[in-house]
Records
---
Amino acid sequence: MCGPSHATIATLPLGRAHYEGISVNDAAAIESTSPASGRCLCGAVSYEVHGPMRPVWNCHCWRCRRWTGHFMAATNCRQEHLRLVSDHTLAWHHPADDPNVAYGFCGGCGGSLFWKVLAGPEDQTDLIAICAGTLDLPTGLTTEGALFEVAASDYHTLDPTIETLARE
Ligand SMILES: [Zn+2]
Ligand SMILES: [Zn+2]
């Protein structure tokens, strides 16, 4: 399953303090495609990113698996760099067993869009994860690593070329 504690799990799609040797503050680790744009399936939620985005991490934890229907492939940015162009159908799901995180989705088409930590250290709450598949092309991003592969479902063949950033 997913991990030792909700607090630890909650930091994962965004967290950097938890991964020794990985820092999204390193200029070399940041792939900037700003200004980037994206939207949900129906287009009722659309956004722009006016700042650098982290390379994509694939999170296979059980929450991301069930929320996305597969796994979460997410980049992130600083919340202040995310501009919601249209958000009237944007809704947030707070898991009952982990209310400190929020999953942002479109109430119209159901598309998965965002993930964020609500309270905690600034290096977590300043950031917002963006489901990378919602970005307009070209994203300019690459996939950097995978989290929690052991929680991936049994039908899924993991890509051996993707580095593991965290195991549980
Ligand atoms: Zn939508
Ligand atoms: Zn996850």
---
Amino acid sequence: MPLEHPVRVARWIHKRYQFSEPPVSFAPALADYPIKVDLRDWSPDVSGICVRAALVSSIGLNQNDSLGRRHFTLWHEFYHYLVHDDEWQFYCVRPWERQRRERECNIFAAHVLMPQE
Ligand SMILES: [Zn+2]
């Protein structure tokens, strides 16, 4: 997997799962990785969490966000899972653009959902 840049990882995901046009389904990734996804009742500033575990990792999404926003957050959290493997837990609170890793996740999610080419 190309780890150098979120755009390259997004291209790799598109190629691997042969996504052609939106909407992009997360189902193929769920089939490949031991991750469970659930919805949580959080305040508006919380977008999601990613908790890495030995057997099954989890991604939590804010059920109060729009469907599109939750989809974006899902791919954001998946990038934490795929690439930021030196940390066990990510708690993603808006505004999340301030930190480098959060920006990487956002770039990845944007390029998975809205590829440039
Ligand atoms: Zn994050």
---
Amino acid sequence: MASLACTVDGIKFSNPFVIGSGPPGTNAKVIAKAFEEGWGGVIAKTISLDASKVTNVAPRYARMRASESREVLGWQNIELISDRPFDTWMDEFKQLKDSYPDGVLIASVMEEYNKDAWIELIERTQESGVDAFELNFSCPHGLPERKMGAAMGQNSEILEEVCGWVNSVATIPVWAKMTPNVTHIVDPARAALRAGCEGVAAINTILSVMGVDLETLRPQPTVEGYSVPGGYSCKAVRPIALRMVMELATMMYGGGSGNPIGEMSSGEFPDRSISAIGGVETGEDAAQFILLGGSTVQVCTGVMIHGYKLASELCRGLEAFMEKHGFDSIEDFRGHSLQYFSTHAELVRRQHEVKAREKAERAGIVTKDTAWDGDSFVEQSNRLVSND
Ligand SMILES: Cc1cc2nc3c(=O)[nH]c(=O)nc-3n(C[C@H](O)[C@H](O)[C@H](O)COP(=O)(O)O)c2cc1C
């Protein structure tokens, strides 16, 4: 019987499905709803010490739909972190932990490049009883103007220093959330893990421009006639997220015979975790992220499209996948598919080998001892002679 329960960095999850930081974890009411609906954990909307610096605009989303089915494929947002006061959040975290002691509650936090601010943020937040931290080094819009979010996550040196500050005071597990808006995601991830983070989360949104309205000639989403590039999420980003999770897992846990990122194939951080994110809407989507090394799987936009009840569908789909393959636990298949990534040269070599074998077999040439047979034994022997 397949079990979805898993323990990651010492935290017990009833299932690996975690609400990703964003609107679905934006206050105590919606977080409570997520726990009621059976989500394994919730990462609250990102908070910082001074919410008065945060001012959101409306509209702040734009969607890409399939032309016929109208299904939502891509979602852009220009939303900032939480605009709710830090003290309100602390009260809500405490209430939530009192009401849902078994619900895994993770605080997503972000600050400017200032040691005292980060230390205050971590110390005060962990007093509220949250189970872990996710450090938001990845928001691609608005906050980089204050040198926060992706601006920090794109600079491995700064990121390592900030993770060091956090880990000097954090008494609970810390995940660093990576931005995909870099050339090599393994570099900042390595810096975070070197600085003592228990895990990495990937990916945040991909910097994007959703489109230009051909009537008004204004970019979308349009606010008083103007726009800014935003963050892209939903189904459309899943292949990119899978690739980045694969690269992180290969660096951390080791990979196949020909390593796709051209690095050592034994892992550098075998005991750390990956929380995989990007375009998950079904249990089958999640299974793929786990096969590529994810210990937990986060969902943000999927909840905005399908609602909190999605949790039961995700669990059902993942369980069905596990039953089909005879996997009893998440650990039974986590990272299983990493071994099948290789280099392009290796693919060419394998293909040549198969073609050469097929050609020999067509010509009746014995290439394996199992191919010898009693009736054509003499002919088979003759075909292997080189000097007649
Ligand atoms: C409207 C919106 C707001 C978001 N806000 C945050 C945030 O405050 N902090 C954060 O770390 N990520 C935030 N994200 C990013 C998501 O947590 C997630 O990394 C990303 O959307 C990809 O996953 P998905 O395709 O499941 O949404 C936000 C995403 C959306 C769509």
---
Amino acid sequence: MAMPSNVEALDIGCGDGKSTLAVATRLGIEGQVLGVDRQQTRLPDGEAPLNVSFMPADAMDLPNSKLAQVSTLYNVLPGLPNAGAVLAMLRKAAIVSRDFVFVSQVQFDSTPHLIRRGFKAYYSDLTSNRYQGSSFDYLRMLRSLFDEGLIADYALLECERIRDSSDPVIHSLQSPPDSGPYDPSMHRHKTLDVPFSEPIFKRMQLILCKKPAQLGKIARRLKALEKPDNVIYSTMAI
Ligand SMILES: C[S@@+](CC[C@H](N)C(=O)[O-])C[C@H]1O[C@@H](n2cnc3c(N)ncnc32)[C@H](O)[C@@H]1O
């Protein structure tokens, strides 16, 4: 299937299309929004606005040319097998985008903090989350894309603080793998209300900016999609 020529936003690894819909509506995109996924999944007919379409494709097979203004990777990178595959996907997204790449996904920095207290975040124990790199691992990948000249600025942010063990993402370490969010009627007992003194977060965001001096403007625009709580690192003030 041929890639449409006038794509404004490309949602890579769109799955059932919910992330594509969020990009289209919350970023207020009036041009074409295209979701691509190597599995043929998409929003049911009638639920997608007219400017949103879907195409089955492996993102790594997309041509190395500027295909869209922006691209998004929602919950895609943790499913890839290793750091090499993650960096290759980030590089591809940077190559096909004119303005910026936005990545949003669960983060794994909390794992050592939680395990010492007898807890885990359920998504750390999903067998589908094969790559569990830390913020620092991602920072090094962004730095190498910067060194290649592929991106001009970048930022790493986090959101959705986990304050104590009552949070539904938290499970006891005894819970089996592949449990979803905590449900007391289904899952092993966990101790509630244990406070987590260090700030730990559920999600991380990456902004890869293609043009210099645009990062602040793009970060403000992206707040409509998912508001960050904390900037971990940024190459310019945002
Ligand atoms: C966890 S789902 C996320 C779906 C959606 N973005 C969301 O947030 O609901 C990850 C998706 O990435 C897709 N994916 C992984 N590698 C891909 C690739 N190389 N090209 C296209 N899609 C890919 C998978 O098929 C899967 O549907």
